[in-house]
Write a structure and sequence with these properties.
Structural class: alpha+beta
Mean pLDDT: 81
Distance between the termini: 94 Å
CATH architecture of the largest domain: 2-Layer Sandwich
Radius of gyration: 30 Å
Shape: elongated
Number of helices: 19
CATH superfamily of the largest domain: Histidine kinase-like ATPase, C-terminal domain
Helix content: 25-40%
Number of strands: 22
Low-confidence stretches: 327-360, 364-373
Strand content: 25-35%
Largest sheet: 8 strands, mixed
CATH topology of the largest domain: Heat Shock Protein 90
Number of domains: 4
Strand order of the largest sheet: 5-4-3-6-2-1-7-8
């Protein structure tokens, strides 16, 4: 007696629907992608009861003929790929031919469509995957899909849907992610006859982002571009952070994707600007040859695989790094010099932004010195043995002494490591410092000994779990070695991350601490070094170093 059976078509359809259609938001996503693939430049979405009762998506795309309309709800019927070869260079958002059949199998669907060159359109009505009728009808050019009573024939699935408010939130999330990537399209979203979002077509990615998430972000948004061998990256990022990464979006060839490595790459690239646990807001667009990326990984099409991962992630890292590499919180040097030359009715500077750091003319250097050099403020005193209180022409200046010294040490350590000077300037100890570790930390430290040596810290295995520190860079004279090693051995990171992690940890543990009493001369020397660093406003971990309270703010406080 056989135990293996072929499943009935209706069961297969519902299984397929379960993979593609999870909730109303899934329906909206698939229908929006179909509209975009049809070349629409105007798309409207209307919902009732957060999409549980009705989802209507109308577009002005190319439309479908009667023959295409009758085929569109058949499984794996698609106009977007034809051969196996096409599957490995997908240029459209949809391609499997699964969306409409999956939707139709778990709802009541009406599709009305008319090509632009036809006098009449046609209407197809389907219920639970079965055609009810197909008839001629008057209709505007384009396609309108109405999906009613989602999961009416799969009550178990309907039962697991969340509240109307939650489901509406999922729909809006999908709608926004798609709208951010297709600027030439006018999108609108209604719920229960109330307009929620109206996004006119635009040429500016930042204006659309700010229209969705608030005009207050416009001044903080920065744009950067990077061209790699086989990839082009465009990033639009705000330095106003959030505690969640929900407003940082990634796109590959206009397709919204989820990629933890891309997120980590962006965070690593701007780690000196943001505190750990905070996330920037914005969009990162990757454009590359469709042959270099596999989108056929998951039915939702939100996961992709890159043929050359190192090049992709490296290009994104460089783009974000350069975007946030402007000096001391000022606009980029290129922009400032352009403004000066325009003011003087001179020629506009044509230097590429990417070359600014490596090729600055003598004229630019003098302009930088005269216009951008930060003036060290006048020191008033020390507050709570933690903050240095100062005054400048703008107002009251507060400086975190630990964060300031950490920035100074980090840049010195980084320059010393890059130049290979540590080995020649390391300070020998008259009596080695002894540390005892656990067995796990011993194994971890053994793998880092060579790296530590390159940083000027000479440490040898004395036997068992005992190590001896025999030399280190003089700028780390105040470091607590037990605390330092406890932190760097918490996690076993990759080599590149380890270098950055070690440099930041060395700077943190070697810096003066909150609670250390400083003399006026020590504060003056600290500020002098701070204002000569590349990025004095932030410590290596992204925490602020300097905060200014303007005289205008002070006057408001005291109601003057």
């Amino acid at each position: 007696m056989r135990s293996i059976n072929i499943l009935p078509p209706e069961v297969i359809a519902k299984i397929a629907a379960g993979e593609v259609i999870e909730r109303p938001a899934s329906v909206v996503k698939e229908l929006l992608e179909n509209s975009l693939d049809a070349g629409a430049d105007r798309i409207s979405v209307a919902l009732e009861k957060s999409g549980k009762r009705l989802i209507r998506v109308a577009d002005n795309g190319v439309g479908m003929s009667k023959e295409d309309l009758s085929l569109c709800i058949k499984r794996h019927a698609t106009s977007k790929i034809y051969t196996l070869k096409d599957l490995f260079c997908v240029k459209t958002l949809g391609f499997r031919g699964e969306a409409l059949p999956s939707i139709a199998s778990v709802s009541k669907v009406k599709i009305t469509s008319k090509p632009h060159d036809h006098l009449f359109g046609h209407k197809l009505v389907v219920e639970a995957g079965k055609d009810l009728y197909l008839e001629e009808t008057g209709a505007p050019s384009g396609t309108t899909v109405e999906v009613r009573d989602l999961f009416f024939n799969v009550p178990a699935r309907r039962k697991f849907l969340k509240s109307d408010r939650s489901e509406l939130g999922y729909v809006m999330d999908v709608f926004i992610k798609i709208a951010l990537a297709h600027l030439n399209v006018h999108f609108s979203l209604e719920h229960n006859n109330k307009l929620l979002l109206n996004l006119p077509a635009t040429e500016d990615p930042i204006s659309r982002f700010c229209l969705v998430f608030g005009e207050g972000l416009s001044e903080s948004m920065k744009a950067g571009k990077k061209i790699g061998k086989d990839i082009f990256v465009a990033a639009y990022i705000s330095d106003k952070t959030r505690r969640k990464s929900d407003r940082l979006f990634f796109y590959v060839n206009s397709r919204n994707i989820k990629d933890r490595l891309l997120l980590k790459t962006v965070l690593d690239a701007c780690s000196e600007r943001f505190v750990k646990g905070e996330y920037p807001q914005g969009m990162v667009f990757l454009n590359l040859n469709p042959k270099m990326v596999d989108v056929n990984v998951h039915p939702t099409k939100q996961e992709v695989r890159f043929q050359n991962e190192s090049e992709v992630y490296g290009c994104v890292f460089e783009c974000i790094k350069e975007l946030f590499s402007f000096s001391r919180g000022k606009p980029s040097l290129k922009i400032q010099i352009q403004k000066k030359k325009e003011k003087d009715k001179d020629t506009v500077l044509k230097r590429d932004i990417a070359s600014e750091k490596n090729a600055v003319s003598e004229e630019e250097k003098q302009y930088l010195i005269s216009e951008f050099k930060l003036k060290k403020p006048h020191i008033i005193g020390q507050l709570r043995k933690t903050y240095i209180i100062c005054e400048d022409e703008q107002g009251l200046v507060l400086i975190d002494q630990h964060a300031a010294h950490e920035r100074i040490l980090y840049e010195k350590l980084k320059n010393g490591f890059n130049s290979g000077e540590f080995s020649s300037v390391s300070q020998k100890l008259l009596e080695p410092y002894r540390i005892e570790l656990s067995s796990e930390d011993t194994r971890n430290l053994n793998s880092k000994i060579d790296l530590l040596l390159n940083m000027g810290i000479e440490i040898s295995h004395f036997g068992g779990n005992t190590f001896l520190i025999t030399s280190f860079p003089p700028i780390l004279k105040n470091i607590n070695w037990d605390s330092f090693f406890s932190e760097i051995l918490e996690e076993n990171t990759e080599k590149i991350d380890s270098i950055e992690h070690l440099l930041k940890t060395m700077a943190c543990h070697g810096a003066i601490k909150a609670g250390d009493l400083l003399s006026l001369e020590e504060m003056d020397a600290l500020l002098k070094e701070l204002y000569e660093t590349e990025l004095p406003y932030f410590c290596p971990h992204g925490r602020p170093v300097i905060k200014t309270i303007s005289f205008q703010e002070l006057e408001k406080m005291f109601k003057r």
